[in-house]
Backbone:
């Protein structure tokens, strides 16, 4: 019974994330953080950051990767078996993809009318800057004592920030900072 | 992911014209959910209706689902491992940098000007400092956008 309730809660959370996930990827991070770390305490702040790191290094979108990972990890963290975690993973992934499926089916039916609709364009003109604000919030939320433990963390941050602007491959940067972590700590 | 899709859908499989693909991309980007999924759903729907989008959606989700599930299964067992923890102590600040670095470029391509920059700043501060749910932000932004257009339309008539 407890397990069924967990699955229901996870489905609802990730359905909401899918429904309000304008901007995709990083813009969805504050929402995922709010649902899984703040409200439900399914995973810790550190684990949340680890999941983003893993998502940045493997193919696929952050929203799905975190849904799949959190579905498994949250179930197992609560003391359930591995196969029940696999079901949890399936539940979350299904939940986050259901709203886009419904919305895109409707959109396809009205595509030609929607394309230049001024109401849609006007909403987007406010949504776009808001989405960039959400991504900025994601970066600010993650700049906390869990992820930045000392001055060395800030040096890694500064170096990767500049390298990333210079278009160095993100996967390479993650691997290198992992090696640096192993040496420094 | 999008350039790969475009090549596959437009050039290799000849499922749609490039202009249709680009039009569709604009809509897919402005709807909730990952852009890759929305694009796949749209292509599937255009080819074979709802059934088509079910399969194209499944196709785009399944590979990363399997990969991440395997990683999660292996990883939760090594979570407390001190070596893994040291590696992630180095990776975590890098993750934040990788999120922060593209912000400027994104701001430019989203067409943010000094006139709209305040929206970005207010949203970031509200979510970060006041802990306001991003869902309210999204709903609020849509309402303000619709209200603004209603106001313009109303005033033009007079």
Residues:
């Amino acid at each position: 019974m407890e397990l069924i309730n967990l699955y229901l809660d996870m489905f609802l959370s990730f359905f909401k994330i899918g429904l309000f996930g304008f901007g995709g990827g990083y813009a969805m991070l504050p929402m995922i953080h709010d649902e899984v770390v703040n409200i439900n305490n399914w995973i810790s702040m550190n684990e949340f950051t680890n999941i983003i790191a893993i998502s940045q290094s493997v193919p696929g979108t952050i929203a799905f990767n975190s849904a799949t990972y959190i579905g498994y990890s949250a179930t197992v963290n609560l003391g359930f078996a591995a196969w029940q975690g696999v079901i949890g993973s399936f539940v979350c992934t299904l939940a986050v993809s259901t709203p886009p499926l419904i919305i895109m089916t409707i959109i396809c039916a009205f595509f030609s009318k929607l394309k230049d609709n001024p109401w849609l364009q006007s909403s987007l003109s406010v949504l776009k800057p808001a989405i960039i604000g959400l991504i900025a919030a994601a970066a600010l939320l993650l700049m906390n004592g869990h992820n930045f433990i000392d001055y060395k963390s800030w040096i890694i941050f500064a170096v990767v920030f500049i390298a990333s602007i210079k278009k160095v491959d993100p996967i390479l940067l993650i691997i290198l900072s992992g090696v640096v972590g192993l040496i420094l700590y | 992911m999008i350039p790969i899709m475009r090549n596959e859908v437009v050039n290799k499989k000849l499922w749609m014209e490039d202009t249709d693909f680009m039009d569709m991309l604009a809509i897919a980007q402005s709807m909730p959910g990952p852009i890759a999924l929305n694009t796949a759903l749209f292509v599937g729907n255009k080819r074979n209706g709802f059934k088509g989008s079910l399969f194209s959606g499944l196709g785009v989700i399944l590979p990363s689902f399997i990969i991440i599930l395997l990683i999660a299964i292996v990883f939760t067992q090594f979570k407390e491992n001190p070596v893994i923890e040291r590696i992630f102590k180095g990776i975590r600040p890098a993750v934040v940098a990788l999120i922060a670095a593209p912000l400027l470029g994104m701001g430019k391509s989203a067409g943010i000007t000094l006139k709209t920059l305040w929206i970005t700043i207010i949203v970031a501060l509200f979510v970060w400092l006041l802990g306001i749910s991003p869902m309210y932000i999204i709903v609020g932004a849509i309402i303000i956008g619709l209200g603004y257009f209603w106001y313009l339309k109303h005033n033009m008539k007079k």
The helical segments of chain B are 2-12, 18-30, 35-77, 82-100, 103-109, 117-129, 134-157. Chain B touches chain A through 88 residues (CB under 8 Å). DSSP finds seven helices and no strands in chain B.
